Amino acid sequence: MKAVISYTSTNSRELESFWKKNNSSTGPRVGSNKIKPESLGGTLEIVDLKSNNILLRKDFAQPLALYKENSGHILCALSSNKIYKLNKKLENVLSITSPLFNSIHSIDKDSQGLLITSSGIDSIVRVFNDASSKVVWSALDLERYSKFPDGVKRTIDYNLDHSGASYPTLQQTTHINSAAIINETYVISTLFHQGELIKINIKTKEVEVLLKNLRSPHGAHIYTKNKKKLIICSDTLHNRVLVDVPIDTTISKSFRVLEDNFNWVQDAKYYPEEDMIIVLDSNNHRICFYSYNDFTFLNQYDYYPGKRIFDIIVISN
Prior knowledge:
3% of the residues lie in helices and 49% in strands. By secondary structure, the protein is mainly beta. The protein has a single domain (2-316), classed as TolB, C-terminal domain (Neuraminidase, 6 Propeller). The chain is globular.
């Protein structure tokens, strides 16, 4: 099984030093008011997860979210607020930019284009999947999440170009960090600061809270099992993965919990071809593989502790 892995930093000592000096935590609000240094490095790797061999490595400045297209191209969001379309050699064949791109933490896609979380401006943005990057839909400034804990409202001028700006985590009201498409009417998303998994009506922008009391959640993804659409979500600072979460609030909020001494679950995904769950156990510097059915531990891939992982995409069995 081969995969592309994004390491947002290859200089974790400097990253950890930055966090130690600048991070603060007030209840659910984890993060910093300072801009991260530019010298954090970053790389993409194509890895054979069975042999543990690195097949290809290419340096990029702080790569973040990944998405595999049916064509075989890999979409990669960079901290420079661009999306690169990469070929099998990780060479850039198309750059996608938008004034509303800012700290892209997730990428999803349907016939309407790309759905991205623009974390820096607390927004979900849908753009055409081409060089024009024309905005076709956005969930900007969700009213119920527009204020900081002290009641001060964050005001953002969406007519400005935010692609050249940097907004640290604690300057954001939600740090919205994942969004996935359910259908033409709904998307789901995770709110890092609020500790919520939510469902948003694309047409009305009304919000339903699917789960709350999470701690710094990441990576909500939709999958189909037994003809039902379900959610897998990383409850990051509770060090667990939530599996089989219903997408309908009228259904009992029962779900399964995967735990295995994790330390900062950066992301987790279900791969139906292998009937397997992949967990990015960031602070333990490992990628873990589990059977979907009974959470049996299958294997793990250990990577160099000097690298900070962000995302993984399986590209072949």
